[in-house]
# Entry
Amino acid sequence: MSWNAPNGSASMMSESVARVSIVCPHGVVGGLMACYHGGRSGDTTSAMADAIEWVEDPDWAKLAAARTLAEVAVARMPGAAGAWKNLILAQKRMGKMAEAQETIARASVAIGGDRTARKAFLAALLELEEYERALAEGEALTADDDAVRALLRDAAIRSNRLGPAECRVLMQQDYTVNQAWGAARDAGDLSRLVAQCRAELAENPIHTDARFILAHALAKLGADAAARATMAIDVFPRIAMLDGDGETGAALASELRVNPTLVQDPHNKATRDGLQAARIGLPGEPAVKALLARIKGAIERYCASVDGIDDPYMAARPARAKLSSWAVIYGAAGRQSPHRHPGGWLSGVYHVSAPHDADGYRGALLLGEPDQRLGKAPPWPVRRVAPVPGRLVLFPSFTPHATESCGAAGERISVAFDVIPFEAKATP
# Structure
C-alpha cells in the first residue's frame, strides 16, 4: 500500500520533505515539516508501536435491546422527554431514520401540554440535531423566558433562519464558533470570530469546527495565505490504493446493497438523490468487516506519516478512538453536498464502485469544497479525486468536501468513516 501526498509528487516511501507555514492559535509556525513515511499493507512500522486503541461500537443485538428498553420506558413514562430522547437515539444508531421521525411525532403528542416537559423535549431535539423539528416544537411554546428564547435562537441559527438584524445582535453575545459563524455570515464582524476560533484551538487543538471556521473567516477577511495554511489541503490528505481485488469489490457491493439501514436522502445528511446506510459491518457482512479492519490499519499508518508534521492538530491525535462508518449508494443524479464531519479527528472514504467511461471514473470527490457561506472561490486548492475502485482517501475532519454527480448510468458506492476521539494522545 503506497500513500500519495496531495500534489501526487511524494509517496509515503519517499524521504522528501515539504516546508510550509500554518496559522495556529499561537500565531505562525514556520518551517512545518511534512515527512512521508510508511510502507505496504502489513508492514510493522512505527505506527504499530503507537497504535490507536480502538473502541468498538455496541453490537446489533445490544442496540436492539436498548431500543426495546427505551420503548418500555416511554410506555411507562410517556411524559418524560429523556425517555423519548433515548428511544430516538437508539433508533437513529440502528439506522431506523423513518422510525425515529415517527417517534418524534409520537413524543410530541404524548408529552402533552406540560411546559417543563415540552422545554426538555425541545432541548432534546437540539441534542439530536433535529433543528427543524425543534423550531416546529418551539412554536407551541410562548417565548416568555430566557431559556426558551435561547433554545429557539439556537435552533434558528443551526437551520440558517436568522436575518441580518438578528445576526448582529448575536455577534454581541457569547456563542459557540459554529453559531457565531452562522451569525457572522451577514453581520461582517469576522475579526471577533477569528479571535474566538484561535482561543478555542488554543484550548482544544482538535476542535474541528473552530479550525474549519477559522479558515473560512480568514478567507472572507482576505487573509488568503493564512486561510490556505489553516485549511492545509496540500499537507494533510493522503490517497492510496487499499486493494485492487475485483472480487472483493463485488462482495462489498453485494453486502452494501442489502444493508438494512439504507435510507433515501436521510434527514440532516449530505446525501442527495441517493441511499445512505447509517451502520455497516453488521452480521452477514463479512467483506465489510474485513474492509473496516484494513481501514484501521491504514489509519495507523497515516498517523505514522504525519508524526513529523509540526501542527497542534496532529500532535493531539487520539490515543483511543472509535471508527464510525457508513455507506453511500447513488446513480447518475446522486451527489454529496458540501459538508464536513465536526465530530471526528480524521475522516475518509473508500471507493467500492463508480460509473466509468472514456474520461475515467465519474462522480469525483472534491476535497476543500468550501461552505457556501464563504460567498467566493476559496484561496485553498480544491482537490478533485477520481473515485477509482479500491482507492482510499484520508483527510482531517475539518476538511470540507463534496462530490460531483456521476451523470452516467451505473452505481457509485462508497464507504465513509470518521475517527471519533475518545482520548487525546499524551504530549511529551
Remarks:
- Residues 7-49, 164-174 have pLDDT under 50 and may be disordered.
- The radius of gyration is 22 Å.
- The longest strand covers residues 318-336.
